[in-house]
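Minimal example, chain plus adenosine-5'-triphosphate.
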Amino acid sequence: MMAADGALSFSVASVMETVLRQHDIQPRHLDLDSRRAEEIATRRYEATAWMRTMIGVVEARDFPAQPSEEEFRVALKSGLILCHVINKVDPGSVPKVVEGPCDPSTVPDGAALCIYQCFENVRNFLVAVEQMGLPTFEASDLEQGGKSFRVVNCILALKSYHDWKQTGGNGTWKFGGNLKPIASGKNFVRKNSDPFKNSLSRFISMNEASMNDQLLETENVEMPDSSLNMLLRAVLLDKKPDEIPMLVESVLSKVMEEFENRIANQFESVSIFAMLFPSLMSHKLPSCLAIILSCIFFLDQQTKDTRTGDSTLLKHTTDEIKMNDKKCALVKTDENLHKNSISDEEKERRHLKYQMLLDIQERDIKALKQTLLTTKAGMQFMQAKFHEEIQNLGLHVHGLATAASGYHRVLEENRKLYNQVQDLKGNIRVYCRVRPGRSDFQSVVDNIEEGTISINTPVKYGKGCRSFNFNKVFGPSATQAEVFADTRPLIRSVLDGYNVCIFAYGQTGSGKTHTMTGPKDLTENSQGVNYRALGDLFFLAEQRKDTFQYVVSVQMIEIYNEQVRDLLATDGLNKRYPFLLLHIAIITSKFEH
Ligand SMILES: Nc1ncnc2c1ncn2[C@@H]1O[C@H](COP(=O)(O)OP(=O)(O)OP(=O)(O)O)[C@@H](O)[C@H]1O
């Protein structure tokens, strides 16, 4: 509970002094500076006396009983006395004490080695002190200009530890003193405490910087009873009896205010560490140290600012290495604070709680890992399956493309063969159709065969029978469909790019219009060649729309009595068109031929 001790160990004297100033009572008879210097010297003498007792008269022959600060520092600089003392308190704490000559004057040519030996002793001592959980100091505090009061604090703490052991103390010793390193900041953070602030500003205004540090440190040291009594007596000496109760009451109220402020600050400290405790339990050591160092650094800065009130007044003599050393020491100190602040039972309970949470989290993580593995395996399986299916699809598409390519090659070949057949049949085909005869006329047709028609010749030309050959002869009973069936293949040739002409020839009333167009009462069955040819053209164009795009245009002209008339002309004037019935244009082709 060092933090608590620090929080509660405020200077009653400073509070009283402030209260007296508020009551316009000047402590004229008090020389606080010299009194505090006296207190520091008293503590140094106390530490010296105890060390002399521990190491014996012979070894302490060069160690004055009441040394000055410089004498004190020189005597301890070699580290020999410190190591011997701590080995007396706790044998074996410093296993190896370098006993070589450490005074450079005795070994003129071995100064470097001697300094190293001295440093090794001091370092071993500090390590041992740190392991005991006692406040430490820095090796540089034994140099000229160092903070010897920290050495004194350390030795007095060691003395307390020794006394505790002498009285039969066993187990882990918890430092209950209020000797606190200067950088342990939280006990300096105060709230709206005028007496405390006034006392701080008063100390900083002192001339010697080293004295500043010492006095600031002394602020946290419980004032000896003798000094407090002296102060009280001096204050009350020239007061009238009726003034004393009011003065005492004022002082006590200020003391209570200070006490409450310290308690509040301490509560904040505990809250911060309670908040950090789960992190400390659940994080790895480097993370914990990083958090603690951050907090300590923050508190340290806050403390320094509070002390000086102005950062420019503060001596920033610490370099980075010293700062790190200080923080490490503070980490240790605050760990001890934390350990002391929580009872073993509470600590064990929290430990079990966090351990349980940790186990649950580990289980969850394992389950998540398992799920992740399963999902990953599923994804890999799906991926492999998709990959296989895409490969199959690719092969299938490739096969289709090959088949389509083959199909078009075959189609082209077929078309060529088809048109070759049409050519072989003859570029010019002549068909004969015999219209049904009238009942009042005798027909001249004697006989009709596949491609031959026999006509009875009149007597004047010599009675007989003459035969005429055609590609095909259609008799009077031939239907419109039968006539068109023989011309139909030529329509396909039109769509393949061939020029085709179909025309009817015959005398008036022989049935040309009937064959090419149909009767007046047009039905589907009675449609002539023109309707059927156009119907076929659009049907084939629709069939081939995925491959070809056709544009169809139509003209209708009439040649009668050697005059050409455009039957679709709306003005009726343009009658000189060339002989052209139908024009089919292939605009685009989706496949190359
Ligand atoms: N195969 C046939 N079956 C039935 N009736 C027919 C047939 N051929 C022609 N006719 C009829 O004979 C008549 C004359 O036919 P159509 O008008 O087609 O002759 P045309 O050759 O066109 O005459 P024109 O040269 O004077 O125009 C029409 O009434 C027509 O219906």
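The longest strand covers residues 582-589. Residues 435-436, 506, 508-514, 519 surround adenosine-5'-triphosphate (CB under 6 Å).
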